[in-house]
Design goal:
This protein has 205 residues and is α+β, with helices and mostly antiparallel strands. It contains 8 helices and 7 strands. It has a single domain (4-204), classed as Gcn5-related N-acetyltransferase (GNAT) (Aminopeptidase, 3-Layer(aba) Sandwich), CATH 3.40.630.30. Helix content is 48%, strand content 23%. The protein has a 7-stranded mixed sheet with strand order 1-2-3-4-5-7-6, with helices on both faces.
């Protein structure tokens, strides 16, 4: 069945949160938070990404999904102002996720988040904050990233992202016009790389 990318629909929000939680359950950054029971991890991540999806809609970012028919294969959350200003209720939503993660994991994750925040450029840009896909849906990340880039180009804005997916993903991003910027080493020794993509419209002008 043909893969299609489009905006997330409101009724798909819970499914999108669960997909992202599943995609990141064994993620590099979460591993740096320490040992957390699998069910607590899944519950915490689901609530965390549910909050992120709601905040993105509220802040007028854009969330793209990749679908095959009715099957949700991937989700990408992006912010057009390079940040995600969090309303008070956003912190309330995230607090429920923190209950499942536990204080040690939360402290470590907040430290990582703050460190990565300091690496972000001050120049206006689109921040590709979260991108996750089903395990059995290769190529979905590429399709979503291209769709997001098209949206950023239409806005005349460059793009910024962080990836911990390894060298192969970096090479794929470079083929799409991204350049490496910084590297951040986690307590586990794993590396998060930041990447930047100039807007072709802006470059041409």
């Amino acid at each position: 069945m043909r893969l299609e990318t489009r905006e997330l629909r409101g009724r798909e929000t819970w499914r999108a949160a669960r997909l992202l939680a599943h995609a990141y359950r064994d993620g590099t950054i979460w591993a740096a938070a320490g040992d957390v029971a699998r069910w607590r991890k899944q519950a915490g991540l689901t609530l965390l990404y549910l909050a992120e999806l709601v905040i993105c809609r509220w802040e007028k970012g854009f969330t793209l999904v990749a679908v095959r028919g009715e099957r949700l294969d991937g989700v990408m959350i992006s912010y057009t102002h390079g940040e995600r200003p969090t309303p008070w209720w956003g912190w309330l939503l995230r607090s429920f996720a923190c209950v499942f993660a536990g204080p040690v994991a939360v402290t470590r994750l907040v430290r990582v988040s703050n460190d990565l925040e300091r690496l972000k450029p001050e120049e206006p840009h689109v921040w590709y904050a979260v991108l996750g896909r089903r395990d059995d849906a290769p190529g979905v990340g590429y399709a979503l990233l291209r769709a997001g880039q098209a949206r950023a180009d239409a806005l005349g804005l460059p793009g910024y992202l962080e990836t911990s997916a390894g060298e192969e993903q970096v090479r794929i991003n470079e083929m799409l016009g991204w350049e490496l910027r910084d590297e951040y080493v986690l307590r586990t020794g794993a590396v998060v790389r930041t990447m930047w993509r100039d807007c072709p419209v802006k470059v041409a002008s």
